[in-house]
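Appendix C reproduces, verbatim, an entry submitted by the partner laboratory led by Prof. M.T., so that reviewers can inspect both the input and the predicted structure.
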Amino acid sequence: MSNWLKIVGTQAGKFILGLTGVTLKNNAGNLDVRNNADSAYASVKASEVTVFNNTAGFGNTIKTQSTQAADYAYELPLNDGTASQVLSTDGTGILSWVSAGSTSQCLTVDTTSLAFGSGATVSMFTLPANAVINSVVVIVDTAFDSTPTMSVGYSGFASKYVASTDLLLSVADRYEVPNQAVANVSTEALEISYSAASATVGAARVLVMYSVPA
């Protein structure tokens, strides 16, 4: 058995590895890997593949994660998509181009603290025009004494999003009020309307979760 150290030649159009192995072809300067019959491309397996920049000598490497525990196959889209599109999977490895979601549609959470000694009106934040409040969560970290109450809304509509009957400040708990109310055409300066009722202890947080349709 001999060892081939170097193969030099310009006349052969292809080189076959084994009687039923793959065929390596020089196709106008490109390396083609074909089946033995030269009728179709053959699959190639490697631990990683690096594509180099011929000008600067830097490369980009594609490889799997070391903790991968199963085989996966991905089918690329039929075209190159359009500007700003991103790759999406159907869950079975079929990839396609889809438009990226707008950040204006993301859920935003704003938090305001309420203490037993707070004033009758506690400013929160300005809700953007046409925003949709998904829910308001009131977390009573420390139970209030006496019988204080609170509501969430804005000037003239103090209970639009949370009514005083939706929670008990005297009980430490998490109170969630689902909502789908749309804001005014302009904006809303949200506020907490608070009645202390002589409370001397107590602390709560009000979380408003909202989104703005694109």
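The longest strand covers residues 132-142. Additional entries are available on request from the coordinating office.
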